């Protein structure tokens, strides 16, 4: 405890000095941040530090990151200078002991569990006669058409063949100044599991796609995950290059969504509180303009005015594509922690989805919702996930599919009309999640859907991949059919020949997984396309099946843990996390998407201060550094 409390009689005259954070308050705060109460207590000196200004806040966290060796020094400096001011802004706006603070303690440190959902009934138009009209069942006679779904390309324009692919940073295969000479393992031209995609790999995939599709959906994350280095000019150039490459390689429309990496700093999608360099309007202006030749003038205006969201009717169909920016529901978007008053619908994304679904219902259309972050995963705020679920319930007869990326896994989530009784009869919505291109999370892959031309439901989903173990991979990646969902899972659930792969079907598949471990283990391998497979035992399987049955985040069974903030708790080993300053391999999907952002660093901090090696001497070192950044006020010294 701070020595102040031994002299309570002098507290009053020193009220202003007390607000000034003392290095010991911070160090004790770090040391005691082992549980949810400790995290709330730590927010007191962190908030006081934020009140001193962004630079004191940023410098303190950088010193802490360096001394505790949470990452390489350049990573500490880059990640914290970029995202630190957002966190500092958030802390100034909230009470250290409120519900938002609890969310922050979960989202960054993994030290609290998420608070119960803030119950709220989203205003929704009453269902009219059109709502009850079930979409006509497919006659099953018309030939399905093909739509390609690809995601999380994470193209690294600085990928350098021959550079070290086995470095200590979150992303390798770049000519870093402190690179090992000679390299531990030189990077090949078409990618490596420790690195993001070289441009040649993306080109190879796009050349394949053009053979398969009518049109495509792309669910976001163009930019690489060296998040400590990205800036606005890099993101602008990365987005522009990729949009050009899409146009050149594909001779049909692409309907994209915005990813959390498609801004600078990473995850920077402010509410209305941001100014100057944190404004993200430039992303929407850029994408609105560059996507326009696949959409239309109305959609381009929507992208600009609805924070990246738009809606458009797919050519030659009666299907409305509604692309929404789900990064406003993302726990790593620190702008969302800046008030104790909840914002139910940040930037009106839910309202936009409702308006477009109502228009589709009125017009007798069906709709696909596309976005980056899936609604049921552990890194979504359970409030917005719950409100989104209300929309899915209301428009269940209009929505024919929901398509997302972000986790880097080939997986699915199911929405139910009654989460208390999750069964085939209550399953009302299927969420399709595409595998990533980036080799960081498995073999590069994309999906091709067979779409019923009358109902727009999915009749089959085929995953194509390029096996990095193939000796020819580094010369010319070969793309092959990996599996067909209908062939793989149909026989397990006696699927009728004309039945779609809908929510009912996927629920039956989860029941088959419960009974048949061989089938589940194949699914587990498919998630990463057979590359860096995470072993999954009985306890892990339970959580995995629970996640499949949760398009609503509050039902996904994940438990927050320090260092594993967004991890699949059964798959990650805290010991491994402790030993490595870089994310361990295999790492969990969300941290792979996230990269070494400040959230990742802080979740490491909670582990390092409690059990990191050489803890006492590093604490002494940290204290002397902090004294230089936040000089102890004279009045306190004299005590
Ligand atoms: C932005 O990042 C790129 C690539 O890392 C770098 O070359 C450039 O100098 C940076 N620009 C600014 C203004 O910092
Ligand atoms: C763009 O497409 C939407 C939906 O397909 C349609 O309602 C709108 O009128 C179109 N706008 C233009 C300018 O063509
Ligand atoms: C279990 O799943 C495997 C793999 O899909 C399949 O080959 C096998 O027939 C299934 N067993 C039963 C009893 O359904």
UniProtKB/TrEMBL annotation:
InterPro entries according to UniProt: ASM_C, ASMase/PPN1_MPP, Calcineurin-like_PHP, Metallo-depent_PP-like, Sphingomy_PDE
Residue sites binding Zn(2+) 2 per the record: 221, 260, 372, 406
Sphingomyelin phosphodiesterase C-terminal domain boundaries: 437-548
Protein's recorded name: Sphingomyelin phosphodiesterase
UniProt GO molecular function: hydrolase activity, acting on glycosyl bonds; metal ion binding; sphingomyelin phosphodiesterase activity
Any GO CC annotation of this UniProt entry: membrane
Organism for this UniProt entry: Mycena albidolilacea
Keyword Nuclease: no
Cofactor(s) needed by this chain: Zn(2+)
Residues involved in Zn(2+) 1 binding: 152, 154, 221, 408
Gene3D superfamilies according to UniProt: 3.60.21.10
Top-level taxon: Eukaryota
Annotated region described as Disordered, given as residue ranges: 564-592
């Amino acid at each position: 405890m701070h020595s102040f409390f031994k002299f309570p009689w002098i507290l009053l005259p020193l009220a202003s000095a007390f607000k000034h954070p003392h290095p010991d308050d911070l160090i004790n705060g770090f040391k005691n941040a082992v549980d949810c109460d400790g995290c709330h207590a730590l927010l007191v000196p962190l908030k006081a530090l934020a009140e001193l200004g962004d630079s004191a806040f940023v410098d303190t966290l950088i010193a802490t990151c360096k001394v505790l060796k949470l990452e390489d020094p350049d990573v500490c400096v880059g990640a914290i200078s970029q995202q630190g001011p957002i966190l500092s802004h958030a802390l100034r706006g909230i009470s250290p002991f409120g519900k938002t603070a609890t969310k922050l303690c979960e989202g960054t440190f993994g030290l609290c569990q998420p608070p119960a959902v803030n119950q709220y009934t989203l205003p929704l138009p009453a269902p009219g006669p059109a709502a009850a009209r079930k979409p006509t069942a497919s006659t099953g006679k018309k030939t399905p058409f093909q739509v390609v779904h690809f995601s999380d390309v994470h193209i690294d324009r600085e990928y350098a063949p021959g550079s070290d692919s086995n470095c200590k940073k979150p992303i390798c295969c770049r000519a870093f100044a402190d690179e090992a000479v000679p390299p531990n393992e030189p990077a090949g031209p078409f990618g490596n599991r420790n690195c993001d995609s070289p441009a040649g790999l993306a080109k190879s995939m796009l050349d394949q796609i053009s053979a398969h599709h009518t049109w495509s959906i792309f669910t976001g994350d163009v930019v690489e995950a060296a998040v400590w280095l990205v800036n606005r000019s890099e993101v602008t150039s990365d987005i522009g290059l990729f949009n050009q490459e899409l146009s050149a390689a594909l001779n049909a429309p692409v309907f994209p969504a915005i990813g959390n990496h498609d801004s600078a700093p990473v995850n920077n999608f402010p509410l209305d509180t941001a100014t100057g360099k944190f404004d993200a309007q430039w992303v929407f202006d850029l994408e609105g303009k560059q996507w326009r030749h696949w959409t239309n003038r109305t959609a381009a205006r929507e992208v600009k005015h609805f924070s990246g969201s738009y809606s458009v009717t797919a050519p030659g169909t009666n299907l409305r594509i509604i692309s929404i920016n789900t990064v406003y529901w993302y726990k790593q978007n620190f702008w969302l922690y800046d008030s104790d008053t909840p914002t139910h619908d940040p930037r009106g994304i839910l309202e936009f989805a409702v308006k477009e679904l109502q228009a589709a219902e009125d017009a007798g259309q069906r709709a696909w919702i596309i976005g980056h972050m899936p609604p049921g995963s552990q890194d979504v705020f359970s409030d917005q996930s719950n409100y989104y679920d209300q929309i899915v319930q209301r428009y269940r007869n209009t929505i024919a599919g929901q398509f997302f990326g972000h986790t880097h896994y080939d997986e699915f989530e199911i929405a139910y009309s009654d989460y208390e009784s999750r069964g085939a009869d209550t399953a009302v919505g299927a969420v399709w999640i595409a595998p990533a291109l980036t080799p960081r999370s498995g073999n590069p892959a994309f999906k091709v859907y067979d779409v019923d031309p009358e109902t727009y439901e999915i009749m089959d989903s085929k995953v194509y991949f390029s096996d990095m173990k193939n000796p020819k991979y580094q010369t010319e990646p070969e793309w092959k059919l990996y599996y067909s969902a209908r062939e793989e899972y149909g026989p397990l659930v006696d699927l009728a020949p004309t039945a779609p792969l809908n929510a009912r079907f996927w629920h039956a598949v989860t029941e088959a997984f419960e009974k048949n471990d061989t089938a589940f283990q194949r699914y587990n391998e498919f998630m990463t396309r057979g590359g860096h497979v995470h072993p999954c035992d009985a306890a892990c399987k339970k959580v995995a099946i629970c996640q499949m049955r949760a398009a609503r985040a509050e039902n996904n069974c994940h438990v927050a843990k320090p260092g594993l903030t967004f991890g699949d708790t059964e798959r990650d080993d805290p010991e491994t996390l402790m030993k490595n300053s870089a994310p361990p391999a295999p790492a969990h999907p969300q941290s792979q998407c996230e990269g070494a952002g400040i959230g990742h660093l802080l979740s490491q901090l909670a582990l390092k201060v409690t059990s990191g090696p050489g803890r006492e001497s590093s604490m002494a070192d940290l204290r002397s550094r902090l004294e230089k950044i936040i000089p102890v006020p004279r009045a306190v010294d004299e005590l």
